[in-house]
Amino acid sequence: MRHHIFFQILAVCLLCGLYLVSPATGAGASGAVSASASSESAMKNTSPMPPLSEREADVILRKGTEAPYSGRYTDNKAAGTYVCRQCGAALYSSKDKFESGCGWPSFDTELPGAVRRLPDADGRRVEIVCAACNGHLGHVFEGEGFTDKNTRHCVNSLSMAFYPAGSPEEAQALAQRKQGASAGTANVAGGCFWGVEDAFRRMPGVTDVVSGYTGGHVPNPSYEDVCRGDTGHAEAVRVTFDPAVVSYEQILRRFFEIHDPTQLDRQGPDVGDQYRSAVFFLDAGQEAVASKLVNRLRELGYDVVTRLEQAGPFYAAEAYHQRFAERTGRGRCHMSVPRFDTPAKGGR
Ligand SMILES: [Zn+2]
């Protein structure tokens, strides 16, 4: 269906990291985006933002790309905060914007937890979406050497709105972010993700669980990459939950019960640092909760080796890893041990 011209344009435009595409509504676009992904119907629109224009919808909902140098924020140098055009969530600070010459607004980092990375339908690039609403933002590239962070978020202006520094809109967006940045999301690693995902799927208050990779230095890793053990990534899950029903602390307590946090760089038969026990905290509040639970378990006599790591990009795993235990009946290797009620010496 995609024609020659498309590939020619693609080849040319890949040089600067983006492609010009008419809205990708074909099977290719939705098929390759992994389990957590975004169909128009799956997107939440909880926002006070005005309705999307047709052009905005082409980009945000149908993953199109605006023409280079056409966006209103490409050369915007004003101080302030860029928010998601669809849901209003704060995404980027002007402090992280830089001049890339690529024709699209470029940032070398996102506000922590604001952006999610997914394998692009083209099989090569890494798509970025708003973590709150799954709206398409653009793509992220690493290793180009533009800034110290060596990362370029190439974002469509149409995917964003801009609030100048000190404006009431900015203050509100940042306040909402403070309340909700980490609310409802927990990233943890406790060995083979099939079993961890399955255990969390059964927990009341949990609304979604995605198996994936995080904590490493290789963008968009495959399962084979991670199995090799040199990417730094752990097999992990991203748990989405309703904070009105279950707290982050309860999620983490469950986490410490469904895997063995005293095993260093392994979990049962799975050996290697990709099977490490880790909590990837999204903010200081989450870090404090994780630290408190680790200390509690240590008081109970468990030699906890769980690593507390600042959350970085989370890459959804291939579709065949999602709901693996549910679909195959295999991989339920995680048993629940009530560690918080059982001192280690009595419990072992
Ligand atoms: Zn959004």
How would you characterize this protein structure?
The chain is α+β, with helices and mostly antiparallel strands. It folds into two domains: 18-179, Metal Binding Protein, Guanine Nucleotide Exchange Factor, Chain A; 182-347, Peptide Methionine Sulfoxide Reductase, Chain A. The protein has ten helices and 17 strands. The protein has helices at residues 4-14, 27-32, 54-60, 168-180, 193-201, 223-228, 248-258, 284-299, 324-328, 344-347; strands at 80-84, 90-93, 97-98, 106-107, 115-119, 126-130, 136-142, 151-155, 160-164, 185-190, 206-214, 234-241, 266-267, 270-271, 277-281, 307-310, 314-316. The chain has a six-stranded antiparallel β-sheet with strand order 3-4-8-7-6-5, with no helix packed on it. A six-stranded mixed β-sheet has the order 16-15-10-12-11-17. It has a three-stranded antiparallel β-sheet with strand order 2-1-9, covered by helices on one side. A hairpin with a 5-residue loop joins strand 1 and strand 2 (90-93). The longest helix is centred in the C-terminal third of the chain and has 16 residues, at 284-299. Bound molecules: zinc ion. Zinc ion binds at residues 84, 86-87, 89, 130, 132-133, 135. Residues 84, 86-87, 89, 130, 132-133, 135 line the site of zinc ion.
